[in-house]
Amino acid sequence: MKKIDELKVAALAGGVGGAKLIVGLRNVLPEGQLTAIVNTGDDFEHFGLRICPDLDTVCYSLAGVADALHGWGVKDETWHVLDQLRQLEAPSWFALGDRDLALHLERTRLLAEGNRLTLVTKAICRKLEVSTAVLPMCDQVAPTLIRLKDGRVLGFQEYFVGERFEPLIDEIILPEASNLSMTTEVAEALRNADLIVICPSNPWVSIAPILNVPGVREQVSSKIIIAVSPIINGAALKGPAAKMFAELGIEASASNVLAHYGELVDGFVYDNQEDENLTITSSKGIILFKTNTIMKETHEKNNLAVDVLCLGLKLFNENN
Ligand code: FO1
C-alpha cells in the first residue's frame, strides 16, 4: 500500500490548462515525484527561432512567472521588439514579448550547438529555478498539422493564432510515428511512474501527439491512468477543443472526451458544473469523479491535484 506522498506521477500536458494542473501536482507532491511530459506538436520555426509554446507555458507556470492573463508568455512583459517588427511590416501575427524572446534566442542557440531538446529544456528549467522534471515528448521536430476544409494544410500555430482557429478543420495530421522516438528520459519516467495523469488539455492536439510517440501508449497502458476533462458542458475553457470536436463531427462533451480516451483511462475527472450525467461507453470499469476543475487560483490547482492523486492512489492500491 502506498501513501499519496509516495506516489511517482508522470503527467501528460499541453498548453495552459495542462500547465495549471502540473503546478497543482508540483505543489502537493514531494520534490522529485512528478515528471511533466509535454506536447511539442505546437512547436514551430519563427524568424529562424525554435518556438515551443507548451514547454514554455509549463516551465513559466512552474517558475511562477507566467502571464496570468493569457496563461502563456511571461508576466510584466514588454513588446518593443514586436512594435518594431510592425514598423518593419514584418510578420507580427505571433506575439513575441521581449523577455519571452530571450528564451527563444537561447533555446535556438543551444539547439544549434547540437544539444537535444530534452537537455536544452533541462538547462532552461535550471536557469528558471524550476526543479520539476519537464520533458518534451520527444527530441525530434514533430509538428501537428491541421488540414482545413478549404484544402490548406497549416501548422498548428498558424491555425490557432494566425487564423484564430476560425477556419473549418477537416483533419488533424500527426507526424509519422516511425520518424519519432521515445527519449530515455521519457521511457524512464513512464517506467518509474505509479500513476499517469492526463491533464485537462486538448485531447487531439495536446495529448494525442504525446501518445503518438512510439512506445508511449504501450508504456502508459500498463499503468493506472487518470484523465481530467478539458470540456465542461460542451465548451472548452480555452482554445479550440470544443470547436474541433464539432468540426470533426463529434459533439463536444465530457462523455466524448472519455470515449476518445476509451480503454486507456482507469479514472475520469470532470467538472461539478457538468449537467449531463456521463455515459460510460467503455467496457472496463472506469471510475468517474466529479469536482471543481476550473483552476483560476492556486488553491484550485492544488485541490484538483489532490482529488486526482486520491483517485489515482485508490486505484493504484486496489491494483497493487
Ligand atoms: N497565443 C495566442 O493566441 N496569440 C499569440 O500571439 C500567442 C503568442 C505566444 C507566444 C509564445 C508562447 O509560448 C505562446 C503563445 N501563444 C499565443 C499561446 C500558444 O499559441 C498556445 O498556448 C499553445 O500553442 C496552445 O497549447
Key structural traits:
320 residues, alpha/beta, Rossmann fold, 14 strands, 39% helix, binds ligand FO1
Topology:
Layout: E1 9-13, H1 16-28, E2 34-38, E3 44-46, E4 49-51, H2 53-63, H3 80-87, H4 98-112, H5 117-127, E5 133-136, E6 145-148, E7 153-155, H6 156-162, E8 169-173, H7 184-192, E9 195-198, H8 203-211, H9 216-221, E10 224-228, E11 231-232, E12 235-236, H10 241-247, H11 254-261, E13 267-271, E14 287-291, H12 298-319
Parallel strand pairs: 1-2, 1-9, 2-5, 9-10, 10-13, 13-14
Antiparallel strand pairs: 3-4, 6-7, 6-8, 11-12
Helix pairs in contact: 1-2, 1-12, 4-5
Bound molecules: ligand FO1.
What does this structure look like?
The chain has a single domain (4-144, 175-319), classed as CofD-like domains (Rossmann fold). With 320 residues, it is an alpha/beta fold. It has helices spanning 16-28, 53-63, 80-87, 98-112, 117-127, 156-162, 184-192, 203-211, 216-221, 241-247, 254-261, 298-319, and strands spanning 9-13, 34-38, 44-46, 49-51, 133-136, 145-148, 153-155, 169-173, 195-198, 224-228, 231-232, 235-236, 267-271, 287-291. 39% of the residues lie in helices and 17% in strands. The strands form 4 sheets. A 7-stranded parallel beta sheet has the order 5-2-1-9-10-13-14, sandwiched between helices. The site of ligand FO1 has 19 residues, from α2 and α6.
